Amino acid sequence: MIRCLRMSFAIPFLLIASAAPAAALDLPGRKPGLWQLTMNFEGRNLPSQVMKHCIDAATDKEMNGVGGGMQKEVCSKQDVQRAGNTIVIDSVCKFGTMTSTSHAVVTGDFNSAYTVKVDSKRDGGPAMPGMPAGGMTHMTIEAKWLGGCEAGQKPGDMILGNGMTMNIHDLPAMRSGAMPAGRPGMPVR
After folding, report:
1. CA distance 5 to 79
2. Separation between Cα atoms, residue 110 and residue 144, nearest integer Å
3. Strand ranges (DSSP E) for 62-134?
4. Partners of residue 83 on adjacent β-strands
5. Distance of CA 135 to the CA centre of its chain
6. Distance in angstroms (rounded) separating the CA atoms of residues 119 and 34
7. In the chain, % of residues over pLDDT 90
């Protein structure tokens, strides 16, 4: 379900982190090509966040796995129930001093469109812009397949709403504090 990342990049990452308990499980693979993900928060003063993922089977699995390793370390509970095209995930994860208890419902076919609805209760941790210091967050992610990746894109590219592009393979450098150089024809990350 879901995958995103880092301050022009950090805010989208923090938004997705609240959905991360559902994001890094063994979900069906998405159809290769370009996917658009639109994240909306109910009752919050945050604009919709839109991003695009250019994927093939390998990078989709890799994007799913990025959160998976993190979740094994931070989640004390991760219950998954499947019924037809619906996946329900209940989880409890701790990020530093913050605990997130989430209930996520994923519906769709992963070939043309899917929806993720996440209800998350956040306890502790620092305040985040536009988010309550505690309490409930309700997020919906609408994902739709747009077709083939655009010219100049390569599998693993994530295009954020501000035009910033990064690739899943850039994450190790970002974690170490190094920013990768931009690719010709693509915005500097």
Report:
1. 25
2. 8
3. 75-83, 86-95, 98-108, 113-123
4. 86
5. 21
6. 27
7. 35
